[in-house]
Amino acid sequence: MLVPEEAHRLRALGLEEGADVRLAYRGVFMTRDPLAVEVGRMTVALRRVHARAMHVEPHLVPA
Amino acid sequence: MSRLPGVVALVGNPNAGKSALFNALTGARQKIANYPGVTVERKAGRLVLPNGEQLELVDLPGTYGLDATSPDEEVTRRVIMGEQPGQAMPDVLVCVLDASNLEQHLVLAQEVLALGRPTVVALNMVDLAERDGLVLDAQALAAELGVPVVPTVAVRRRGLAELAQAVAAARNRAEQSVPKPRAQLSGTERRMLARTMAQGATLSETAKHRLHARLDQVLLHQWLGPVVLFALLFVVFQAVFSWAKPVQDSLDALFSGGSAWLRAHMAASLARDLLTDGVIAGVGSVVVFLPQILVLFFFILVMEATGYMARAAFLMDRMMAGVGLSGRSFIPLLSSFACAVPGIMATRSITDPKDRLTTILIAPMMTCSARLPVYAVIIAAFIPARQVLPGVGLQGLVLFALYGMGIVGAMAAALLLRRSVTRGAASGFIMELPKYQLPTVKDLALGLYQRAWIFLRRAGTMIFTVAIVLWLLLNFPRAEPGRDQVDASIAGHIANGLAVVVEPIGFNRDIALSLIPTMAAREVAVSSLATTYAVGATDEAARAGGLGQQLKSHWSLATALAFLAWFVFAPQCMSTIAVTRRETNGWKWPAFMLGYLFGLAYIFAGAVYWIAVAAGLG
Questions:
Q1: Among B134, B210, B429, the residue to mutate for chain A (most A Cβ within 10 A)
Q2: Which site among A10, B23, B389, B526 is 20 to 30 Å from B476 CA-CA?
């Protein structure tokens, strides 16, 4: 569960309903946390706990 | 500057290139202050319109929206709405957009435009957009938004005249008509509209391999990333010592030369002693550290301007999470190596209040540059310049250990604080990783100049005053002939009282004496020891021996080590306490900070002293 401010910040960075996201980088060794996610033309860092609170549907990227 | 006939404000997302545009529009003549009551930095300068008229240009803190969550964003919202005390409502708003990220930046732009105020849009960094293979149509965007859109490249001074022209036009239009406010939209609707508008303004888009993606493959790599970061930090600290050394030596020579010249050309008098022992010894011993501070700030500015600082936060997040903090705390803590005051001010970007408070409380343990003079003098006097391993000297090792003690202490304190006084929900880490950019020489030079000025002003006012007051306290009342001047002085009497408290941790009367003025600023410890021993020195030979020789003859090695340990933790800096009070809105947390840090300092200095004595170093 996210606190309201975290949800607010994620939305402000473009992680909204309907956004296309791509997992670009996973953090340092061992835990691989936080994550770097590409949304639009931006790269946003967030933790796994935030990612878990999002509903993501995979779709194929055209080659 | 409030006498200028109008106010123009720059609004935009973080990383829109707002500051670079502000620097390009105003040049070096900037006024940096704080908004009253909050420590949000207020940057203002002059914008010259095409007709020669001058307006005040204000650079507002970057924000993602007008529904503020952090103190920075709250100031931006209040200034725009005309609710910020002491700040006239802006006549024209300049909304700065990153041309290569319109679908994000147009969300805030819509919010600003919905206010129905005279607004001009600066389509900034169009060169970087072109580098990414993006060709934009500013006219189409202007038609869509209903306000003028000016393409700019702040770093190449492109579009600046056109922007000033558009501001002038918007200001003249202000009285007659303003664009009609759009209907109230939800955030999601604004974002969808932003995407449509961004697509409409895009003439062509070729998928190019973007530079930052390739850089990040290395810099954010799970193994390589941390290696590069620590290598970089190692280089930074090496540079702080080696690059600054020649400049420092010549500054030092300048001050001792000046002192010698005065001695030779002025008749012996109290006034001459005040100049040489008080002013030059006091202020000079602090100013020589300006080169080191500038080298450190140079690296911090470069890391911020290139976009690497956010990557460093990303890499450090996991480690910081281990003590209950987040990667966001890394930036303020790194700045605290230069000075805790900007470090504590930089905590404003931490959104979680408990997280922020913890970072503020541990920031003073990061070894700030003001401690360097103290460490440098003591190490040079007491630690032999011996090689421990090839290329690794004992002196450097001791210095490294002192930095390490501060970091370990800070992390341990964070862990304990997060489990006790600053307990709260686990903090999150959400931040934009901006595009990589080459910093411009001009922006770096301006940043460095501003830091240097702040430091010199401090040396010129507070440290100057402290040096003189201490000299007076040390010289009056005058000792009878043949008696020790320090013992007879007012300062000597105060120190005698304090010495009782610090004797158990190996501190002598001279150290107790130096601790009093050191509350003003840590680096004063060196100058006050210099002043004490200069006043106490009975003959010219002892004076000429320098501070290092004086220390060696008055202190044991155990005392010197205890003194170093004390400075790792002791919150000896009024400015830090003052900024903590301001940032936490009260005396509760600065009082807590004073208590726990003095406690730690006392315990650690004592432990070091007694262990050293037991080891036969007493």
A1: B429
A2: B526
From CA A33, how far away is CA A21, in angstroms rounded? 17
Q: How confident is the model over A24-63, as pLDDT tens digits?
A: 999 998 889 999 999 988 999 999 999 999 999 988 766 5
| Interface predicted TM-score (ipTM) of this complex, two decimals | 0.95
User: Under DSSP, is residue B34 helix (H, G, I), strand (E, B) or coil?
Assistant: strand
Q: Please write the tens of the pLDDT for every residue from B538-554.
A: 655 555 557 778 888 88
* Residues whose CB is less than 8 angstroms from the CB of residue B421 and which lie 6 or more positions away in sequence, other chains included: B592
Task: Give the pTM.
Answer: 0.84
Mind giving me the DSSP string for A2-47?
Answer: --HHHHHHHHHTT--TT--EEEEEE-STTT--SEEEEETTEEEEE-
B7-208, superfamily in CATH? P-loop containing nucleotide triphosphate hydrolases (3.40.50.300)
In angstroms, rounded to a whole number, what is the distance separating the alpha carbons of residues B161 and B183? 33
In this structure, the strands spanning B54-59 and B7-12 are parallel
Taking the Cβ of residue B203 and every Cβ of chain A, the question of whether any pair is shorter than 8 Å is answered with no
Find the closest chain A residue to B353 by CA distance. Answer: A5
Characterize B581-605 residue by residue with b for buried, 16 or more Cβ atoms within 10 angstroms of its Cβ, and e for exposed.
Answer: bbbbeeeebbebbbebbeebbbebb
